[in-house]
Amino acid sequence: MRGIWAGCLGSILGLMCVAGIAVAADRPIPPPIPPVDALSAPPVTARFAKSFRIGDLDGAFSQIGLGDMKKALGAGAVAGIQGMSWLCYDLPAAKQRVWLSSTGGAMETVTVTRIGAPSASCPALPAKNQAVVVDGGIRIGMARAELTKRLGQPSRQIDTWTVYSAQQAAGRQGLAVQFINDKAAFIAITHLDR
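Above: the chain's sequence. Below: its structure in token form.
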């Protein structure tokens, strides 16, 4: 899938391009893939992503399936392509879109981006679920200095992208954050169990 979208993903405008193509084709919007691979970066930090919160709903990486998340959130349809399944939701009050995705049974990746307008392809979540936070702190709008204070120096910095990687006996984690005007505008966090 990386090769299909590679030409579109050079910037935040590329993310809009991906969403536009999917909507025009009247298909569910697939999660955007950052142009940097956080899982291949050298590990520099301890495990940083055990759980996430969507409004008042708590979830744990690799412990809850997409069907369970859909049921808990009360909306959505699991979509898929090339071995990846996902749910997407719009958070209109926050002007964000969130994808929950998996390449197996349990949820592995949370991706959050800023959006201009909601899409009919991604149902809107109720007001009580309008905030997405990973492990109580990683979120859209956070400053680069705040992320560095929380996680230390990154594994890599490439253009507007900051990448963290962690490895433990239990698995590997990757975090890719795009900063625009020193604020997080795109977050993709992946947790893979061994």
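The radius of gyration is 15 Å.
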